[in-house]
Amino acid sequence: LDDMKQLYAAVGIGAYCVVEVQGVPGYMLRLGADGKYRECGESGVLAGVGVDVLVATLGRLGEMGNMGAANWFMGQVKGD
Questions:
Q1: How far apart are CA 9 and CA 44, in angstroms?
Q2: Cα 33 off chain centre by
Q3: Residue 6: strand, helix, or coil
Q4: Residues 6+ away with beta carbon under 8 Å from 75
């Protein structure tokens, strides 16, 4: 993960999410002006969307399929 974080920072990826790695819950990272990632509680792209919503969406893929999970996610983003 550290190698990927360094690569992403080098190419300027502003934020990314890591989901369930070796039993560690998901988390989001946002690239600071200093070129270092810091953990954050919600998406910088989709205001109000926390890592919990992203993790829950991925969990729904198996039961709902891609379209069902995408529709559920959109409902969460819209506040339905």
A1: 16
A2: 20
A3: helix
A4: none
Written as six digits, the tokens of 52 are 């919990």
Q: Give the pLDDT score at 9.
A: 92
Per-residue tokens: 3: 């190698």
pTM above 0.85, yes or no: no
Strands 27-31 and 37-40: antiparallel
Cα–Cα distances in angstroms (integers) from residue 24 to residues 19, 21, 27, 41, 71, in the given order: 8, 5, 9, 15, 27
Q: Residues 45-59: what's their mean pLDDT?
A: 80
Beta carbons of 17 and 26 less than 8 angstroms apart: yes
